[in-house]
Amino acid sequence: MEQRIGSSSQPLEGAGFDPAFIPGLTSPASARTEEDGPEKEPEVAAAEEVEEAEEVEEAGPEPEDTAEAEPSGPEEEPAPGGPVFEASDRRARLVADHRGVRMALDDQECEFRWDEIGAVETETARFGKRYTVTVHTPDRRWYPIEIEAPARSRFMEWDAQLDAVLDAYFEDGAPEGREEPVT
Question: Cα torsion for 32, 36, 38, 44, to the nearest 10°?
């Protein structure tokens, strides 16, 4: 009879243990293959980077991008007169308007367009002054942000403002051109 010595449990996976689990949060780890060979010495790697930079400079200037001259990005689009929800504290900031939902915590930011959002959930702490807004995406991911309110009385005001924005911009149901299946 054979027995293993040691733990038989598998290592845990997920964002709590590996920040690279969330796409876009960190740069992907460079996967080495057998073809890559052993790691290069830092001096050799630095010399190769300098050579590559020189080759790019010798290739000449890149053609100017005409897209920069034409304002077509979402930053330039005029804001309609619709409702806007803004809440912030010393660390966190949440804005919901015609473009979607934007969240910022310290130096990290993320933005969700309305077509990328499956649901928006709010929650208030039983004790304390924390107001939590969670954005759920259709691919079963959720992104919560906690904002500390100046007073608990702001919770009802923030709920009303956020509901007005969601009613105006968030389309619950099937997108245009697609019919929901009838059962």
Answer: -110
Model confidence pLDDT, tens digit, residues 99-134: 999 999 999 999 999 999 999 999 998 888 999 999
Which residues are CB-contacts of 163 (< 8 A; sequence separation ≥ 6)?
none
Burial degree of 84 (CB within 10 A; 0-12, 13-18, 19+):
middle
Bridge partners (DSSP) of residue 135 are: 120, 143
Q: Does residue 50 carry a pLDDT above 60?
A: no
Distance CA 174, CA 180 (A): 6
SS3 of residue 87 by DSSP: strand
Cα–Cα distance for residue pair 53/45, rounded to 1 Å: 13
Counting DSSP H helices and E strands in the chain, the numbers are: 2, 7
DSSP string, 116-174: G-SEEEEEE-SSSSEEEEEEEPTTS-EEEEEEE-SSTTHHHHHHHHHHHHHHHH---SP
CA distances from 36 to 32, 39, 40, 47, 175 (A): 6, 8, 10, 17, 46
Distance CA 48, CA 24 (A): 28
> What are the residue ranges of helices labelled H in 18-125?
42-58
